[in-house]
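Minutes, structural biology subgroup

Action item carried over from last meeting: produce the structure token record for HAD family hydrolase (Faecalitalea cylindroides). EB confirmed the sequence was re-checked against the source entry. Recorded below for completeness.
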Amino acid sequence: MIKAIIFDFNGTMIFDQEILEKSWTLFLKNLIHRKPTDEEFSNYIHGRNIEESIHYFLGDDVENINTLKLEKEKIYRDFCKADKENYKLVDGLPEFLDDLKMKNYVCAIATASGLDNIRFHYENLKLYKWFDWNNIIYNDYSFKGKPSPEIYEKCIQNLNLKKDECIVFEDSISGIIAAKNAGVYKVVAINKNKMLPCEKADNIISDYKNAIKILE
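Output recorded by EB:
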């Protein structure tokens, strides 16, 4: 019996890929003097925690990594604030979350975002309407980043549920692999062009308008 729905955040609850890539491009402009390639965005940025991404581009011995992380995330949040047209929950998601709440499903988030970013989204997107803060697992560097399953294992343990009682919504290859390796009942991929990012996903949707049918 499914009891919990676990969401990744970036690219899953908001389509912020363009904002995310713009922020990384600007951040890295004066550091590596080039834009990350599409392959680098896919393999070393999307779904990954920021520290791993910085180490990939700047090396394992980079200095002042905490300052760099704060600088990068401020750029990202500033882009979010400026992009009022695209900084919003994916179409159909508020209604889907309302349905889940009405049907007494537990809703949780497992994200590679850090504390400052998830607090920013929690307030600005009014996530508190559907998510208990204690049901949000964010990147506190206590576990390996995706594609390691640890973030989902920690989330399931935090909910005091069994892995086959949970469905995960994800957008990135690393996130889908992480959720599958955690052994959840089902992994649903979301992509606004409905292009399957990873063959390991069980379903694919382009928005949440009919997502409730997946639970039926």
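Discussion: The chain has eight helices and six strands.
Next step: EB to file the record with the rest of the batch.
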